[in-house]
Amino acid sequence: MKNEKNGMTAAEKMKERTTLSFEVFPPKTEAGTEALKKALGEMNAFAPAWISCTCGASGSDKGCQNEILEAIGALNGPLPSAHYTCIHREKEQIREDTEKLLAMGVDHMLALRGDFRKGECATMGQFSHATELMEYLKELYGERLHLSCAGFPEGHIQSDDRRDDIAYLRRKQDLGAEYIVTQLTFDMEAFRRWLGELDRARITLPVSAGVMPVTERDKLLRHCLSQNGCAIPSSLARLISRFYDDPAGFREAGLDYTAAQIREYIALGVNDLHIYTLNDPAVTREVLERSGCFTAR
């Protein structure tokens, strides 16, 4: 099944041209939800191929993911894609949740293990890995459900062997994943090496490169170090030092840095630019316009 409104899956769009997509998260308040719905309309001016909505923080069910997915589906153009994790979920709940999504017209899903909740060291659900979730979903829904998977250019934070990461990614391809959405990275050399590893492992899925606009020093450090474990390359470290006590200057330099990273990703031939919008349409617009690669309609 393909999304009837658009006629093409996200992977098909990526194979046809370099696409743009966005990630948003479900607000915890009614006011935040209404603000995000308005923001989605502003982001849609850039004609994204798809927009994903995350789960609640740390894999929780807090928030209004389905309501946001419905709002995305009501837009003219982008496909809605749901993040879905194994955290605290049994098979029956997974089936019920997926049936609800399909009934809403949401047939794209990013299948994830998810981050363990505070104080826990396991998913506390029926599956321990994203591959197990994907296998179950494919058994139930086959081609009705279009699955994407996570990729880790700098290696998964809980993996000590990059070869294991690539093996898991190859397994996800074999299970029917249609494209890869990468974890946050600022180290472009690591990203290039990772692309080479994909090629050697005969992983041919389209790659959607995750991009987080650099706007605030503390937010940047938190995203890099709290759970992602991604490196801060020397160019970015110098930017942090140069504008350490100058938030306005850091924001300006950071947006230029992100715009340059977008251009570099496109030069490397990625299939999609996936902007972690943090629900901020103004920053999203500014960084895309600075890149010179995408313009609003």
Structure description:
- This protein starts with 9 loop residues before the first helix and ends in a 6-residue tail after the last helix.
- It is 45% helix and 14% strand.
- By secondary structure, the chain is α/β, with parallel strands linked by helices.
- The mean pLDDT is 92.
- The protein has an 8-stranded parallel barrel with strand order 1-2-3-4-5-6-7-8, surrounded by 5 helices.
- α9 packs antiparallel against α10 (247-268) and α10 (247-268) crosses α11.
- The chain is globular.
- It has 11 helices and 8 strands.
- It has a single domain (10-291), classed as TIM Barrel (Alpha-Beta Barrel), CATH 3.20.20.220.
- The longest helix is centred in the last third of the chain and has 22 residues, at 247-268.
Features:
single chain; alpha/beta; 11 helices; TIM Barrel; globular; 8 strands; 297 residues
